[in-house]
C-alpha cells in the first residue's frame, strides 16, 4: 500500500469546563448552651465533606466572628487542606424552617477563590430574630450550605463521530444499465421515453 492511501486516521477531543455541586446540612442542637459557652470570635466546625475533589467544612460562630458582629450568627465555608492553586466556588447559606425549606438565604454572587481563607457571611442572621422566628424548636435549628465548585478546565479524548458511508457504484454500472434497457430482463421498472417503453 502506498503512503497516503486508505482511510484517514480519525480522532477527536473536547475542552471541558466542569463543575460539581454539593450540599451540606449543619444542625445546631443545644443552641442556648452553645451560644452561652462559645465566646465572640470563636467558631465550631462541622464534620468534613468532599465536593469537587476537595475536603470542606462549615465554620459556625454562635456569637459572631468578631465584636462588630457579636449580635449575629456568622457562617463560613472553608477548605480542610492547603492547596497550591486556589479553588473557585460559589455558595449559598440558608436557614431552614421546620419543614426543611429555606426561609432566609445569603448568596455569594460571583465565585470566590478558596486558597486558605474561608468565605461566608458575618451577619448571616441576628440571634434575637432567630429566637423570635419560630424556626428554633427544641433548642435546635438547621443551616444548609449549597455550593458549586468550578473544576479545572482540561482536555480529554472523545469518540469521533462515524463518517458518512458513501457507496461507490461499480465501474461497470453503465454496461449493466445499458443491457437492462435493451433486454428488459430482471427489470421491475418500466421507463417510457417519447412513447417508447423500455
TrEMBL record:
PROSITE patterns: MATH (PS50144). InterPro entries: BPM1-6, MATH/TRAF_dom, TRAF-like. Residues 21-147 form the MATH domain. One of its GO terms (biological process) is protein ubiquitination. Pfam families: MATH_2 (PF22486). SUPFAM superfamilies: TRAF domain-like. PANTHER family: BTB/POZ AND MATH DOMAIN-CONTAINING PROTEIN 1, OS07G0655300 PROTEIN. This is MATH domain-containing protein. It comes from Eleusine coracana subsp. coracana. The lineage of its organism: Eukaryota, Viridiplantae, Streptophyta, Embryophyta, Tracheophyta.
Amino acid at each position: 500500500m502506498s503512503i497516503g492511501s486508505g482511510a484517514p486516521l480519525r480522532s477527536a477531543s473536547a475542552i471541558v469546563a466542569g463543575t460539581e455541586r454539593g450540599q451540606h446540612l449543619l444542625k445546631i442542637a443545644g443552641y442556648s448552651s452553645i451560644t452561652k459557652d462559645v465566646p465572640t470570635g470563636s467558631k465550631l466546625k462541622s464534620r468534613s465533606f468532599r465536593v469537587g475533589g476537595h475536603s470542606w467544612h462549615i465554620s459556625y460562630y454562635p456569637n459572631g466572628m468578631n465584636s462588630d458582629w457579636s449580635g449575629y450568627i456568622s457562617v463560613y465555608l472553608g477548605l480542610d487542606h492547603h492547596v497550591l492553586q486556589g479553588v473557585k466556588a460559589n455558595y449559598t447559606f440558608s436557614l431552614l424552617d421546620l419543614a426543611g425549606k429555606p426561609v432566609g438565604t445569603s448568596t455569594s454572587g460571583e465565585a470566590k477563590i478558596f486558597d486558605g481563607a474561608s468565605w461566608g457571611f458575618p451577619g448571616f442572621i441576628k440571634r434575637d430574630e432567630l429566637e423570635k422566628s419560630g424556626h428554633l424548636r427544641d433548642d435546635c435549628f438547621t443551616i444548609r450550605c449549597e455550593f458549586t465548585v468550578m473544576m479545572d478546565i482540561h482536555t480529554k479524548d472523545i469518540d469521533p463521530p462515524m463518517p458518512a458511508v458513501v457507496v461507490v457504484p461499480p465501474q461497470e454500472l453503465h454496461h449493466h444499465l445499458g443491457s437492462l434497457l435493451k433486454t428488459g430482463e430482471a427489470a421491475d421498472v418500466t421507463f417510457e421515453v417519447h412513447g417508447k417503453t423500455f
